[in-house]
Amino acid sequence: MFKLPALPYAYDALSPTLSATTMHTHHDKHHKAYVEALNKLLAEKGQRPGSLEEVVRATAERDDKIAHNAGQAWNHGFFWESMSPTASAPDGALAGAMERAFGDVGQFRSKFVEAGAEHFGSGWVWLLAQGGELKIETTHDGDSAIAMQGVTPLLVCDLWEHAYYLDYKNERKGFLEAWAARLANWGFAGVQFDATDGQGQAYRFPPPQG
């Protein structure tokens, strides 16, 4: 069975951008519910996958409860890692790729916020690497970037209302602006980018236990 991963920081560590109340609700209720629902569905079908990545990729073309819950469980795990209470900036190979793709971090933020704000309905906005180059894309509902061929996600921001409504009400753009400016974990993004060149291991959801 898959376990709900703990947050990599305290519940109040991202405040005031995201409150402890939002983080408790988002992690302890929403993310937990996706993981528990997925475990129940897999058990009912007698399936014991070796990784969550395996489930997400195998069900990417399906429109069913296993696909939705698997994608949501993985995306949330990646989302927690995409944030940090410590301000940072792209460096190393990632910094060069950012300059080629966007010019500078400020231009990246503008494009990232615009893509997320204009996304219709629930979903996710991603910074992705493909073939050494960077791009921004959105996915709907529980769809995950790890199901895209040849793509490595570097960062993601949650566009579902439960990610921001308690703190920002219906101001998704305001949430995205604050997130991109204050919470984006560029150290994590750099590790992800290096992994595309065979340096280290990209993020994987904790393997099932028991």
Task: Describe the 3D structure.
It is a single chain. The chain has 210 residues and is mostly helical. Helices cover 47% and strands 11% of the residues. The protein has helices at residues 20-44, 52-58, 65-81, 92-102, 105-118, 165-168, 172-182, 186-195; strands at 123-130, 133-140, 152-158. Strands 2-1-3 form a 3-stranded antiparallel beta sheet. A hairpin with a 2-residue loop joins β1 (123-130) and β2 (133-140).
In short:
With 210 residues, this protein is mostly helical. It has eight helices and three strands, in the order αααααβββααα. The chain has one domain (19-200): Iron/manganese superoxide dismutase, C-terminal domain (minor pseudopilin epsh fold), CATH 3.55.40.
Assign a percent range to the helix content.
40-55%
Name the poorly predicted regions: none
Question: What is the top-level CATH class?
Answer: Alpha Beta
The counted number of beta strands is 3
Distance between the termini: 6 Å
CATH topology: minor pseudopilin epsh fold
Report the C-alpha radius of gyration, rounded: 16 Å
CATH homologous superfamily descriptor? Iron/manganese superoxide dismutase, C-terminal domain
User: What is the typical, i.e. mean, pLDDT?
Assistant: 97
Helix/sheet category: mainly alpha
Backbone shape: globular
- Work out the strand percent: 5-15%
